[in-house]
Design brief:
By secondary structure, the chain is of the alpha+beta class. It is built from three helices and six strands. It has one domain: Nuclear Transport Factor 2, Chain: A (Roll). Strand 5 and strand 6 form a beta hairpin.
Length: 167
């Protein structure tokens, strides 16, 4: 696989994920994820160091499998999550997408900058979340899936509820 092929694949997957989140196409979004997917937003330990082990340290969000992602989506769809009702409007933006030069035909490592504008309908307030994103993509039956998504949230003093759809 060439570097250009890896970048094309990665950009397609990341842009589709952003679109699906913004349009609340939950099933399409879930389909982007591998069964053993990990979705992780570590917490900062200090001004310059974040947690590095989600099983031993606190995380802002840690979801260890696609089944758990499906549970989060089910909760959002149920209208029983007070923190998610009404759902905010979001606009996800990705930039500086770079593939790991060690990417191969069976895996692609990706780094990007992710920014999400979140409009809280109830409070009529806008928040911005920005992070350094890392993805590991793997092909399953020739369809590339997200095996791991790690977001290091750079503005982690959060004044509103935050969940997967905000990041």
């Amino acid at each position: 696989m060439t570097d250009q092929d890896a970048l094309r694949i990665a950009t397609d997957v990341l842009y589709r994920e952003a679109l699906y989140l913004d349009e609340r196409r939950w099933d399409d979004w879930l389909d982007l994820y591998h069964a053993d997917a990990e979705f992780w937003v570590p917490m900062w330990k200090s001004e310059h160091e974040f947690t590095d082990n989600p099983s031993r340290e606190v995380s802002l969000i840690y979801i260890a499998s696609r089944d758990r992602l499906e549970e989060r989506v089910k909760r959002v769809r149920s209208n029983r999550s007070a923190a998610s009702m009404p759902l905010p409007r979001t606009a996800h933006t990705l930039s500086n997408i770079v593939c790991d030069p060690e990417s191969k035909a069976d895996r692609i490592g990706v780094r990007a900058i992710a920014t999400t504008q979140v409009f809280d309908v109830k409070r009529r307030e806008t928040s911005t979340f920005y992070s350094r994103a890392e993805y590991h993509l793997v092909p399953i039956e020739s369809v590339w899936r997200i095996r791991k998504k790690k977001l290091v949230l750079l503005n982690d003093y959060i004044q509103t509820a935050v969940d997967f759809y905000c990041l």
